[in-house]
Amino acid sequence: MTINFDEIINRRGTYASKWDVKENELPLSIADMDFKAAPEIVEALQKRVEHGIYGYTDVSDKWYESIINWWEKRHGIKFAKEDLLFCTGVIPAISSLVRKLTTPAEKVLVFTPVYNIFFNSIYNNGRYILECPLKDEDGNYHIDFADLETKLADPQTTLMILCNPHNPVGRIWSKDELAQIAHLCKKNHVIVISDEIHCDLVDPHEAYVPFAKVSDEAKYNSVTCIAPSKAFNLAGLQSSAIVVFEEGLRNRVRRAINTDEVAEPNAFAMTATETAFSQCGYWLDELMVYIKHNKDLIRSYIRDNIPELRVIPSKATYLLWIDCRKIANDSVALAKYIREKSGLILADGSIYRGDGNYYLRMNTAYPKQVIEDALKRLSMSIEAFKKER
After folding, report:
1. pLDDT tens, position by position, for the chain (389 residues)?
2. The CATH number of domain 17-37+281-388, selected from 3.90.1150.10, 3.20.20.70, 3.30.200.20, 3.30.360.10
3. Residue 180: which of 200, 155, 199, 162 has the closest Cα?
4. Helix, coil or strand: residue 114
5. How many CA within 13 A on the CB side of residue 316?
6. 290 touches 5 (CB < 8 A)
7. 17-37+281-388 and 43-279 agree in CATH topology
């Protein structure tokens, strides 16, 4: 391994969202990584900084080329230049699309538990959230297709937001599952937004399936949102891409993001994206090996030392979904207790809806030493909680 992911970098005082906490607290909640970006990205950004002029920036040909080449090589799907639109982020894109592709009071379907900011994008635009709860069968989440078909058939359901791979449960949806979703959505005139921001964060020797790849029903009835932000830890540079194969739908998407003024890059977005996708595949490969080791460490530690908790199997993302129902049925109260007792900050699962009230979400993208510290804090907190309840 050529990258030192064991290096601990102090992020306090850098306006890092998750590190704006007390000195003794350890935040493993918000989903960004505590690893330095690939050296090629750092060097490219330093050169851009040294130029000294940071004016209005256009989308470059290299930006298109880097994305097209990456997805063809890594994921076996071919984009044309005209299929791609720049946006400042996946969530700005989703919020714009909810406004443009639906009308007030219509329903937007999501599988729950799911990334909580989806709910903001729906509610803040005056639409209704329609939950299709995933079924937990011995720790493996599955889609209830009968429930899905019933809810898609509701005339007020006009849009579905799919998380592929799924945050927070770590599922990689199969080709058959995605094809069935695509068929039901097309049949019921429901457009799909597929959020694939975590698509490159899969365990070694695993692969995700792009939604638009599974069938023509998926390809021409969907909008896919992708970005370098999660895989390469570049969220603060605000760069993403929207992929739309159907021309009429693409024109509506273009109008949406331009109306909301989220279709222009900042001075560093092009440089970082081009460099990440054209030069840093090796870094990502090494990262996923390291994260897999962290996830395995957490699973084994919890199994051996905190048997009251159960880690849900996960092949994607750097997030783990931890079942706490043997000792608590209120993840808000449990997360608060753990924070007060040990300083360890985990995300309470209730914010993701569905059955999330029984779960905590843990970010594993940290140096091993930090993970070990977090596990000791977690163990101490759970032991204290059992004695006090």
Report:
1. 699 999 999 999 999 999 999 999 999 999 999 999 999 999 999 999 999 999 999 999 999 999 999 999 999 999 999 999 999 999 999 999 999 999 999 999 999 999 999 999 999 999 999 999 999 887 789 999 999 999 999 999 999 999 999 999 999 999 999 999 999 999 999 999 999 999 999 999 999 999 999 999 999 999 999 999 999 999 999 999 999 999 999 999 999 999 999 999 999 999 999 999 999 999 999 999 999 999 999 999 999 999 999 999 999 999 999 999 999 999 999 999 999 999 999 999 999 999 999 999 999 999 999 999 999 999 999 999 998 87
2. 3.90.1150.10
3. 162
4. coil
5. 22
6. yes
7. no
CA pair distance 311, 93, nearest whole angstrom: 32
Task: Write the CATH number of the domain with boundaries 43-279.
Answer: 3.40.640.10
Helix pair angle (281-305, 368-388), 10° resolution:
30
String of DSSP letters for 165-216: S-TTT-----HHHHHHHHHHHHHTT-EEEEE-TTTT-B-TT-----GGGS-H
Per-domain residue ranges for the chain? Answer: 17-37+281-388, 43-279
Q: From residue 286, how far is each of 18, 231, 289, 315 by CA, in Å?
A: 25, 12, 5, 16
